[in-house]
Specification:
single chain; about 140 residues; alpha+beta; Nuclear Transport Factor 2, Chain: A; about 25% helix; globular; NTF2-like_dom_sf; ECF_Sigma-70_Domain
Amino acid sequence: MRAAHDHGALILELADHLRSANHPGVASLLHSDVVLTVDSGEGARAVASRAQGRCACAGELVRIALGAAEPAADPAVSVVVTVEELNGAPGLVIRARGAVVGVIVAAARDGLIGELWAVLNPEKFGGVAGMSQPGGPFGHY
């Protein structure tokens, strides 16, 4: 079990697993009763607004990371997942064609990820510091 101070390590691991669409790897980082809340707004591809449980949340996270950029999940579109500071803590920024298409923040519980919030609504990206350029304090991994 991971210590509470390893939140950054959890996010880095989550990013690695999402980049490779490693569903079991993503699931291994999630608490058994994890909850994912998604704000897709009207300007983004619709996904479930809420998922609960390790398997359901892992599946939604992989779908978000791979398919948030294009409804048809165009393999020609390069999707980049970076770890950046969001609301004062490490979070994930998802870009396609250089544009931000999603952000994911998480809260840890018992050494695992216990709650996640994914914002796919482009109208809400403007208020997040460091969103215009890849990198940020945690860099591009």
